[in-house]
Amino acid sequence: MNLLYPITVSKVFFILMLLGSTTACYGKSAPVNTRLKEKAFATRQVQTVQKGDITGELIHQRRKRTYYLHTPKSYNPNRPMSLVIAFHGHGSQGKNLAFNTGFSELAERKGFIIVYPDGIDRRWNTARNTLLGVNDVSFVKSLIDNITQIRAIDKRKIYAVGVSNGGFLVQRLACEPNIKIAAFASVVATLPGELKSSCDRTSPTSMLMINGTLDRKVPWAGGRFPGGSFLSVPDTINFWRQHNSCTPKVAKQILNKRVDITRYPNCQGDTEVELVTLKDAGHVWPRGGSGSGELLNGSQEIWDFFQRHQLSNGKK
Question: Residue 214 needs a FRET pair 20 to 30 A away by CA distance; which of 92, 276, 279, 281 works?
Answer without folding.
Answer: 92
